[in-house]
Amino acid sequence: MSDGDSRVFLITGASSGIGETTARHAAAAGYRVVLAARSTEKLEALASELDGLAVTCDVTEWADQEALVERALAEYGRIDVAFANAGFGGKRGFKADTPEFWRAMVLTNVYGAALTIRACMDALVETKGHLILTSSLAGRRSLPGSLYSATKFAVTSMGESARLELNGTGVRVTLIEPGMVDTPFFDERPVGMLEPDDVARAVMFAVSQPPHVDVNEILVRPTNQET
Hints:
alpha/beta; Rossmann fold; 6 helices
């Protein structure tokens, strides 16, 4: 039996990309997975495959996040890892996307991540668990005309704020900061990007450390990414 047996790994944005791939890794490591996203059909298919729990959830809605945690606790009794991964990007340029698109992106990337922290905090303290947030290389350096970059700077700051608040509780906090990843984010995909599997392995590396080791940030780039 692996160290993950009977432990519970909750993931938002779990229906595709990094979230889906991390769910596969977590299930393979023996975790029971709680999968949250808005894409109900894809989510339920993945949960069926991994023998997990699918919960349709809009991370920008507090009631949905509360219900997500309540379902996880009712079904499995605990949460050991909460991965606030839901988010999406936009075009560079402050005249490129619509204000409505901006609003949705900021609410999902920033407010949604904050709500996941709030919803999962008590359960994580109970298990001395692990909070993981998907930030980005774009949350470490500003990109030209990128409001997306600003949202990820907020997530980077949020991760450190959460670490400071949770210090002394036994809860670990990790920021995952990928460079270019081969996801639907790119219309024309550059050659040599990271795969979602590369990021998922970084997540599992942080989770697999002994309890006294808190890997706070993992910045991972493709070998050929210059900046």
